[in-house]
Structures are given as C-alpha cells and as structure tokens.
Structure to design on (1140 residues):
C-alpha cells in the first residue's frame, strides 16, 4: 500500500523563517514531512520550495488545509499549489504519424510508470488509431489545414475540457498550436524537440546537426510557450555520434533519446517536481 | 564576500517533527536557512539531514550554539556535527609515484576549487618531491617495507596530529594502510580506485577489465575501511571503451576519470555534503 | 533502393599481405569495397577483419564466390564466413513475464530497425501471448519445471530448427538454458543482464547494487555460454543513481538501459558486425 | 620499443579499386598494414582513407616512397599526405590568463600523452610565465592592443616559422586571430570553446547557458577558421547540470570538460587521425 501524501509547491520572496514556518505548519497538524527541498535564486531573491508529507494522521481535512495555510501564505506573499498523491492527473497525448514516442508513453503507462489516466488521444492523422484502439484509448481525429485550424482547436479544447485534462503531452505532434491554445494551457503542455536546444531549433534538427558536423546529438523536453522551441527546458540528454552517422542513423539513435527524455519530463510533471521560474525550470528530484 | 554559514549534519530515528524542530531552532535564533535536505531510509527508519544557514545576524555564538542544540538533539536521539564555512579543513595528501591525481589536486587547490589547506604531503617515494617543492608544500618521505611499516605509520600519524589534519586523500598511494591507521581516521580517508567497484577490486583493474572484455571502464572514490576496496562509495564515473583499447590505453583514458572522480569526492567531503550510513553514503549535493 | 552487399568476416594469424590479398580479391572481381576494418590483437598475433562490398557488377555468383575465395583463405589459414545483405536472418525471441524488452524489440522491428524476420516467440508463460497475437507473431508456450526441462527444450529446438532460426534473443527470459542447448546455438544466443557485468552477476542485481551503495547502475548484453553471465560482452551502458534511488526506482531506470543495450546488440549481430575472440567481442561499427 | 610506422591520409573521388590499389602498394613493398580505415560520403561521392603500416622491412626509403606513390595517386586523383611516427610534431601553445587548459596540456605532455615537442608558448599576458619557466618552456610575451595587433602577429608568425611549428593550440587564448594568421595556419590551429557548439557561440557561453536554463553544458574543440566558432568540430563532450548550478559552478564543471575535450583533439591531430571535409571532420580513431 502506497502512502497518500500532500505535496505543497510554493514560491515567494526569500526571507528568514519560511522553511521554519512551513515545516511548523505541517508539524503542528501532525504531518510527517517525507521530503522537503528549497532553492533560493539570486539576484531575484526568490525562494522556491517543495514539501511532501504523509497524510496519515494529518489533522486537517483537504478543504480545511487550504484555508489553514492562507495566513502563512499571506505572511510571506507566497504563490502556492497543493496536490494529493491519490488524485490521478488526466493526461492527453497529441500525436501525428511518428509511432515511437506515442507507443513508448502508452507502454510506460501500462507498466505503471506514470501516475495518470489517459482519457484522450488527439491526432491530425489516423495512423495511430489502431494502436490506440488496441490499448483501449479514446482517439479523436482532427485533421488540420490552414483554414480549419482555429475551428479544430476549439473542438480539441472542448474535448480537453470535457475530460478535465491536466496535462497535454505532444508526442511528436507535427502541428504548431495557436497562441490562444498555448496560453490557455500555460505550463501544462510538454513537448519533445529532437535536438539539444537551443542548438538546432526549428525543423529538421538532425539534418542541421549533420550539416554542422557535430559530434553529439540530443533531445530536449520543454513546456510549450508562444515562442517556438523557447519554452522552459525540463530535461535534456545527448548521445555521441561520429562522421559515419547519416541523417537516418541520427534519427534512429535520436529515437531512444527522445523517448527517454520525454518520459522523464512527463514523470517529473506528474510527480509535481517542477516549478517554473520565468524561462527556466526548477526541478526537485 | 562569501557568507559565513553553519552546516548541521545529523542522523536519528525518523519520526514526526524533526524537520520542523530543526528549522524552528534555526529560525528562533534569527538564522536564515540557505539549504536544507533530508533523506529517510526504510526499513531502518533512519532520517539523515543537512541544514545550512547564514551566520549573519544569528543570535547564538558558536559555543552557545552547541549547548543550545543539545535539548533538541536529545529529544530526537540525534547524532550530529556542526561545521562553519570559515574554517578551512586541513587536508593531507598521500602519494606514491603516479603524478596525475596528485598534480590535479594541487592545481585545483591553487585555482580555489577546494576550501582547504594542504599542510602536508606524505609519500613512500621521493618522486613527487620536486613538484611539492614547486608548489611550496611540505613533503614528508616515509619509505615503507614490511618490517618498518608499523613504525613509519606511527611517525606519519604524529605528523598528521601535529598539523591537525582533518582529511587524508590517497592520490594513488600504493600502500595498504594498517587497520589501526584506518580505524583512527575512520570516515576521514578518501581513496581513488581505478575501476567501477565492485567490479575489478584489488590490483590491476585495467588488466582485469581487458581480460574480461568489458565495454566500459570506470573509477570509484570511497572512504577507506579495513576491508580493502569495500568502503562506502562516494562518487563513480565511467567511460566507454572498445576492443581496440589496450591496457595502456585504458590507463590513459582512466586517468581523466580518476582525477575527476577523486576531486569531486574531495569537494563533497570538504563542503560537508556526505553522511555515511553503514556501507553507503548519502550525498546532499 | 538499398544496395545488396556482401559481408566477409574472417580471422587468421596476422602476417603481411592479408588486407592487400582480400581487397585485391574483391577488386579483381569488380567489387566496390564500401567498408573495411581490421583489428590485430597481440600477443595472440591474430587478425580479425570485416569487409563489405557492393554486389552490383560483382562478377562472381554467390556460389562461385565461396569457391573462388578458398585459395586465399587457405594461403592465410583463414576462418571466414560470408553474408549477403538481402537475406533476412530469422530471429526467435524468448520471453517470460517482463514486457518491456520484448515489446521494445517488436516495436523496433515494426519500425524497420532490424533487418530480420521474427518467425517465433517462445515463452514459459502465457502473459505475453496477447501482445504477440496483436503483432501477428507465432507464440509457443513451453512451461518449464525441473522435471520437464529437457523434454521442453527438445521441443523448442525442433521449432527453432523448423523455422531455420539464426539468432535467439533472450528478452528477460527467466530460465537458464541447458548446456546442450547453449552449445547447439553457440554464438547465436544474445542475453540481456541488468547490471554492468562482471559486477552483480547472478540474480537480483539491482538489490545487490542497492546493498553495495553504488552510484552507477548498468546493463550488459552478451552472448550466452555455459558459464552463466560470463559470455562475451557485446554492449554495456550505465546510468547514474543516488542514495535516493530505491530498488524499485533502479528497476525503472534500468528498464531504459536494458532496452537500449539489448536492441543495440541485436542490431550489431544482425549487421554482422561482431566477431568473437575467446571470451571477448570485436565490434566493427 | 615502439614501431616506426607510416601513416597515409588521402581523399579522392570514390570508385572501385582504391582500397585494393593502396593496400597492394603497401604490400608490394613489403609493408605490414597495422590499421586501415576508409569512409565514403554521399552524395559528394568522396572517399577518405587512413592507412598505417609498419616501416620495418618496408623496401622503399621515405624519399622514394613519395615518388613511388605518385602514379597511384594520379590514377585516382588523390590528395594525400604521409606522416612518419618517429617525427615529433612541434606544437605551440597560445594562452592568456586561464591556467587550467594550459597546465593540463603541459602535464599530459610530461606524462607522455602527446607525441610532440612544445618549442614555444605565446601569450598576451605574463601570468603563465612562472609555470612555463618551471616546466622549462620558452615563453614569448606579445601583449595585444587594437593598434599593435597586426605587428605583434607578424612577430608571432616569425617565431612560429623559426621553430617550424606544425600545430597551434589555443588553450583559452582570449584574442581573436586575424584572417591572415588563420589562413596561414589553415587546419593547424585547434581551439577550445566552452559550449556545445553551435549553441552559445561567442562570448560568455556559461552565462548564456544559465540564462537559457539548459540542463546540459558542453565543450567543443575545433579547427579555427575565419568564421568565429564555426570551424570543423573535432570533439565535444557534455555534463549534466541542474537549476542549482550558478554560472561560477558551471565554469568549475566546465573546466574538466574543456581540458578533456581539448586534450583529446590534440591527441587525434598529433596521431594524424583527422581529415577535414569542408566544414566537418572525419575522425579515424
């Protein structure tokens, strides 16, 4: 039996007494802190903190908790969010025609690597439908053209709302989401880019890498913002290559990277281990 | 100007209120916690913690601090140690005839990578004396034979005591220290072994690696215990090799690993980021 | 359109004229060498060589080729084998209850990463049958007990013979094959072990790694020999861990390693890039 | 006693018979090929080749060799160069005020890692002179201003010519060499840049990396061309970082990378393992 835990994520101007204040709050209500981490960044003088405690024996109900924490939060001008580990976040996967990231996510989900439900798969192609069907996933097909894009996104959003989706994972989704879409799901869309950003942003990064003659290729998962490929980076990994690696060979090697890097980002997000600070992420793992 | 900080390392049976108790203690005396990390291990149910706070404005003197913390420590049955960042630990280097780890440590020290003094270099050979001289280091020569070993170690210990040495770094020192020596400096001797332990313990690890045909070689830094090559591991790193790598080539590649792995372990120790739990280390970095 | 190529693998005592002899042979019959690599090992004084050439315009038929090469092979006392890239090797997968390596192999096969057919999946459990069915793979179920082992292996061998299987991949197959079986498929069985061998051979390597407190875990693919976990290593990879990683967490991280390491070994074998020399592999990639 | 070897590097349009022609040439004159590697790049249809053979018993003198190879080279329109392993290339080091790459190169040289002489160290500062003196190296001081740059470079070139320098290593030399200088030593100047190029070209790459919030930093060694940071890449390596790494901490971690990456590039060059093809390198290691 896994413990049910509460996870408090907060940020505020750094000053004396915050760590003590938060841990005292948990302790006073009989919570046992399982993990706590904080990070103070200069010159912004901002503190970021993640505290996780066991809910067993905790004397506040979930509703009361939110009220009870308000004075502390007010005192230190905290922005905060609380999550409970027994809630399964709802994750939608957007996919186009590349199978490997999509298949990998499903397989990991099936093996229990993600604490999440997958109520929805959205695609602008039909290629992945048989696979989704095999795994019993709901598959919605929204082909995109320049003309119908705005309308299709509206339908997609309606589906996402209906299912109460908390996280959108772009598993090599080959469409650029509109600014409106991105703003609506700010901090809730994770993309995988097949280069070690900021190198080789944009299209055909492996071709770019080949043309430049680099000795290392990479993959980057990041939150999607309105600026393409410039959102806060969550995880990156690389692999060595040589002059012998053709573009096709890079794609082959890159697939392994992309899968691992994307899966890791999804896991970190689902475990509430990421705080965004401007264009960067703070990752408490 | 760097801040002067206090670093509290502690371990105790895990139960509710420890994190809160410690952070309240710091906060009550007007300390600003800069970094705090804890780790709870099951089934032992032990908590390990490292807390670092700014000494500026802290209302307890260093002597008073030790007294003031006693009730808290007693309440939770803590084992604890406190360090202050303005004390420069005294580090002795033991070396034989291999220059690279020794030279690397000196160079890093000179570049300010280590918060430490090096009052003493001890060797069973004279080879490194010119280098020590060039860097103005005190070099003591104690050749070791089966017959004189016990006596020479006594002299070495006398030197170490005289200089108040806090940490002994074996920079490819090719002598096995006696059990008595090791016990006296328990948790204070760091060695570098040129394999990814537990593979290829003992002598000639690169030859062993060659004979086995591995595709990866490594290096391991660890605290020295009476059981050769079995002390708690601090850091490890590896590098890929191929069938083309001769034993000499492995040695060449391994040198880079050994230097980096040893230097990292020394830095972690000097920054008081390591807690030893049985045969393992907990590293708060 | 991919080129059809011939791949000659050979080993012989090293002396002058071998490289020249082989390349002259190819050239005389109007073959264009696309890739050639050799490796000479001392003190054994053995030469290992892999030569690949374009079959387009090559003036010898496949049957004639084998005859025509005989004098050269005799002159230098070569052991040699020739492969043609338009033959698809037949690969059988042995699996028990762990899905991830099996699923990964199938997915890679489907994406065209392996030049091979998969005529047969053999298992001592029924768990993976639905997955095999979904991908249209023939699944044979041979439960193993101490009593029936010899008999079941005979049936397995009959199936393997019937299908003309060239390579057996143990995708976390949790049975030890008999010496007779292993000898019959000498150099044709690839296993994945979830540690960086020779560390943590045998069972429960992640538990062993946890108990030892290593900072790196690994995976090793190797040819199966009668000595468990001691066959020639093909590929290895590692990942860093910390004290925070539980055994379960290691298993999770290790899965990614195991998949990549096994897939790479299979690809190298299928591309005829591996020569075995005693307990080691020579890999021309 | 190490063997004396000949190393032939060549490039030419790819067609049948080149490998055979070259190996026959070596074999006819009683040379034993120790290592041979080739690489054919499409769609340029260019072949690059490196052949190394034992000079013992080789029937051509060095002078005759150059004449004897001419017909073969003519037949295939080869560009070629030949090196002999008993010639020690002359390597000049350019350095400014950062000690670590410079010191590392000297130490490696002293340990025998480089087959080279270091007849000259050139600097625009005096900081490194004591170190050069300690190691008995000739140190030339040429302070650079906008006004005197052209004149100082002339003097530097005169020194380099006088010493017959074959390779210039920029060990964190903080001056941009003029186009004239770079053209004169085309393919003979190796630089170390402290980022994984093409990301973070130009100045302050660690600050750029910090600002972008990447999770990996790198180092790149490359040949210097007139386009700053755009020359052919020789080696790259990376290290993982987290949000906790300040710019200073990145610099610290990066130092290890820079040293290893630069040393590896120097070694590859000195062993004649690099061929340049346009903006890329082909590395036969």
């Amino acid at each position: 039996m896994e413990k049910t835990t509460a996870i408090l994520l907060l940020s505020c101007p750094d000053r004396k007494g915050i760590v003590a204040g938060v841990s005292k709050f948990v302790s006073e209500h009989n919570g046992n802190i399982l993990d706590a981490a904080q990070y103070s960044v200069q010159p912004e003088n901002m503190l970021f903190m993640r505290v996780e405690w066991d809910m067993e024996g905790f004397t506040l109900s979930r509703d009361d908790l939110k009220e009870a924490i308000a004075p502390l939060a007010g005192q230190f001008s905290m922005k905060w969010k609380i999550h409970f580990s027994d809630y399964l976040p709802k994750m939608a996967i957007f996919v186009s025609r590349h199978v490997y990231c999509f298949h990998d996510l499903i397989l990991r989900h099936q093996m229990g690597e993600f604490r999440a439900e997958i109520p929805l798969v959205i695609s602008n192609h039909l290629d992945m439908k048989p696979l989704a069907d095999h795994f019993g996933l709901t598959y919605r097909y929204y082909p995109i053209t320049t003309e119908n894009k705005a309308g299709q996104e509206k339908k997609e959003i309606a589906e996402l709302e209906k299912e109460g989706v908390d996280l959108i994972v772009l598993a090599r989704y080959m469409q650029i989401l509109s600014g409106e879409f991105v703003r609506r799901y700010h901090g809730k869309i994770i993309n995988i880019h097949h280069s070690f950003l900021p190198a080789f942003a944009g299209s055909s990064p492996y071709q770019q890498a080949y043309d430049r003659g680099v000795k290392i290729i990479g993959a980057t998962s990041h939150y999607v913002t309105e600026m393409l490929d410039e959102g806060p980076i969550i995880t990156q990994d690389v692999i060595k290559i040589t002059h012998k690696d053709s573009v096709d060979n890079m794609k082959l090697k890159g697939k392994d990277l992309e899968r691992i890097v994307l899966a890791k980002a999804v896991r970190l997000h689902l475990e509430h281990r990421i705080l965004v600070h401007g264009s960067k992420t703070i990752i408490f793992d």
